[in-house]
Amino acid sequence: MTFLLETIRLGLSNLRLHMLRSFLTALGIIIGVSAVITMVSIGEGSKQQALFQIERLGARNIIIRSQKPPQAQPQQGQRQGFVSKYGITRADLAVIRESFPDVEAIVPLKELGSQIIRGDRRKVSQTFGTTPALKHVANLTVARGRYLTESDLEERAMVCIIGSEIAKELFHLEDPLGETLRIDSKAFRVVGVLAPVGLAGGAGAALVGRDLNLDVHIPITTARATFGDMVVRRGSGSFQANNVEIAEIYIQSTSRDQVMLDSKLVRRVMAVRHPDLEDIGLIVPYELLEQAKRQALTWTVTLSAIAGISLLVGGIGIMNIMLANVTERTREIGIRRSLGATRKHIVWQFLVETSVLSMIGGLLGIGVGIVTSILIELLTPKLPSLPFVGSFVPPDVQAPTQLTPWSMAVAFAVATLTGLVFGLYPAIKAAKQDPIVALRHD
């Protein structure tokens, strides 16, 4: 124990005598460790954001969506009116109900209306007739008021629930509850406002195909009785009418394991009724969730490998400095050997120095990595407001980060191991020196 303590004391004393050189030697390790932690935190933050957005759609859900087939798309420059009939039918919905009697919920959404109007303010309609079960199935939260009820369906009530952005844009500072808005020429009373949905600008919105914060929900019975199946979109000099009976169907399976089996059966059922699935799209968030996890793992490993190169460079830097130390301290090694120090003592002295350098570098690197990760998340949203830089980044840019204990532990362990590995050769070279020759060294 005395030998080990004395060796550590000698190693630390030598490092203190050359503080600047010691810091510069450890700089490669500091940069390497901080780079690993920062890269992993960026990758993990992006992964968690994508997973949250996908999971927000419901990991047990299967979403069947009507989509316009390629042959029904308007040609470039086309201005005359036309009508397209496609998508999910009520007969499809009946078949699905018969084919999946054991699922937790089957919720249809019916698209309707061309405009949402409040006074002189207008928005392109994103209104859907649906049932009260959508709130649970789609993980919706009501911020104020209430959601649809069974009595609304029975009475074909002229009520609506609006998304958070509709509340902001059409009502500004007013309280929307109890107020009236029009969907085309029909007046509806607002009975609820949905909480903001995080899918608005992320991966989930791309999957759903719209900003969910602009949704307006009314009872599906009211939608059928009041609006029919035709949805008309008017433009300058042209109009487009879509005849779609059901816009979307949410199917909620009993478990995450069952959702994969159900999704395969849904594909087979819909493929029979809609050959090639040209006018039907199928979204299985759980599939996307697993795929996103695999992609995120690949991304994290790639980033870590790139950042790990910095650790390798830092290790080479330590070896170079320690080899220079051996040459510089040849006479000291000779004196220690002549006074009774063994080769093992010399090896331990140099290994202590490299270990301390790499461990201190690792700890400083962890601190720098944590601070860098936090600053990236805090400062990235401010980039659009900066002169010059702001014109090159999107206004809603974000860089979420998430620090992971395992990345800190692995980076520190690799840094320490790197120091030991790259310090071993200089230590052995120092120990092998002939004491007589070392004493004669100038």
Describe this entry's structure for a reader.
The protein is of the alpha+beta class and 442 residues long. The protein folds into two domains: 2-53 and 291-440, no CATH class; 61-252, no CATH class. The protein has 14 helices and 15 strands. It has helices at residues 2-17, 19-55, 90-99, 134-137, 150-155, 164-171, 203-208, 220-227, 256-273, 285-328, 330-338, 343-379, 405-431, 435-440, and strands at 61-66, 82-85, 105-112, 115-118, 121-124, 127-130, 142-145, 159-162, 180-183, 186-194, 216-219, 230-235, 238-243, 248-252, 280-283. The strands form two sheets. Strands 1, 3, 4, 5, 6, 7, 8, 9, 10, 11, 14 and 15 form a twelve-stranded mixed β-sheet that branches. A hairpin with a 2-residue loop joins strand 12 and strand 13 (238-243). The protein starts with a helix and ends with a helix.
The beta-strand count equals: 15
* Basic shape: elongated
Largest sheet: 12 strands, mixed
What's the gyration radius in Å? 33 Å
Strand composition percent: 15-25%
The unreliable regions are: none
H/E topology pattern? HHEEHEEEEHEHEHEEHEHEEEHEHHHHH
SS element count, helices: 14
The span between the termini is 34 Å
Which structural class matches the secondary elements? alpha+beta
Percent helix, as a range, is: 40-55%
User: What is the total number of structural domains?
Assistant: 2
Mean pLDDT: 80
Oligomer: single chain
